[in-house]
Amino acid sequence: MCGIVGIYLKNKKYHKDLGKLLTVMMNNMATRGPDSAGFAIYSPEKKKKFKYSVCFQKNDSKSFKKIISKEIKDAKIKVISDHLVIETSSHPSKVLNIIKNFEDLNLVGYGNSIEIFKQVGNPKDVVKEFSLEKFSGTHAIGHTRMATESAITTDGSHPYSTGEDECLVHNGSLSNHNNLRRTLKKRGVEIKSQNDTEVAAGYISDGLSNKKSLKETLIEGLKDLDGFYTFISGTKKGMAIVRDEIACKPAVVAETKDYVAIASEFQAMAHLPNVNKAKIFEPEPGLVYSWGE
């Protein structure tokens, strides 16, 4: 049992409040996943700029900042708790190679639009640690985890990102993730953890890299991904949700002219603006719903 949430803002007037809206959604899902939490924030992309979200463990962030600033002259770096976000015009091929040289660093996501933060602990504490309420943006996805498939570590926390500006959160479990992991690795998809969700994220990024849309990829996933699951996946354009064809994992959607919100339980969305006027529905099994894509 995990908690998943997502919100896509149609109305720009709410962009400044994205973090505040997501904070309450995450806090209200804390009871579904007390082990760890994480979230992905999407903001309007800056042309020719990339952002890299990095989690450091034993490394001294000050020394790392010095090295990055030396290697990448235009790097802008912000530190939030045990995460760094590096913004630069340097191509990913260069920056990713630099990051890989640091054994105690974990790249959790990168792209033109995305920033990802995740940490072990009670979701309410994690949200507070990263000051989520201060973030702005266009859409966001979050997760509160009850560990089942792998250890309680940052590496085992969601969201997972295995491609540029792509991420996934998941409630459920996959039965064929080991075979699929081997197949994806042969195709060049990098999967670092033993978590089944990262395999699903790799499946999605593999589909996107082959010029398929997010919706097309998730539709194909219904026949390739075995198990019980509800996925919320994001790209810089928008987000999508899909439940497997048995649909034993809960989800509810609330849609107004200003936003679309998704959560495992309605209580996560009860505070949203004018939610009493929203179209509220449970996603049908085996159907993909997408917004902005």
Q: What's the SSE blueprint?
A:
Elements: E1 3-9, H1 18-28, E2 36-42, E3 50-56, H2 61-71, E4 76-80, E5 83-88, H3 92-100, E6 105-111, E7 114-120, H4 123-129, E8 139-145, E9 160-163, E10 166-174, H5 177-186, H6 196-209, H7 214-224, E11 227-234, E12 239-243, E13 252-255, E14 259-263, E15 279-281, E16 288-291
Antiparallel strand pairs: 1-8, 1-14, 2-7, 2-8, 3-5, 3-6, 4-5, 9-10, 10-11, 11-12, 12-16, 13-14, 13-15
Short description:
With 293 residues, the chain is of the alpha+beta class.
Question: Mind explaining what this structure looks like?
Answer:
By secondary structure, this protein is of the alpha+beta class. The protein has two domains: 3-45 and 137-291, Aminohydrolase, N-terminal nucleophile (Ntn) domain (Glutamine Phosphoribosylpyrophosphate, subunit 1, domain 1, 4-Layer Sandwich), CATH 3.60.20.10; 46-112, Alpha-Beta Plaits, CATH 3.30.70. The chain has seven helices and 16 strands. It is globular and about 50 Å long. The mean pLDDT is 93.
The chain-level mean pLDDT equals: 93
Number of strands: 16
* Alpha-carbon distance between the two ends: 28 Å
Strand order of the largest sheet: 7-2-8-1-14-13-15
Radius of gyration: 18 Å
CATH class of the largest domain: Alpha Beta
SSE string, helices as H and strands as E: EHEEHEEHEEHEEEHHHEEEEEE
Total helical segments: 7
CATH superfamily of the largest domain: Aminohydrolase, N-terminal nucleophile (Ntn) domain
Q: From the 3D structure, determine the CATH topology of the largest domain.
A: Glutamine Phosphoribosylpyrophosphate, subunit 1, domain 1
Helix content: 10-25%
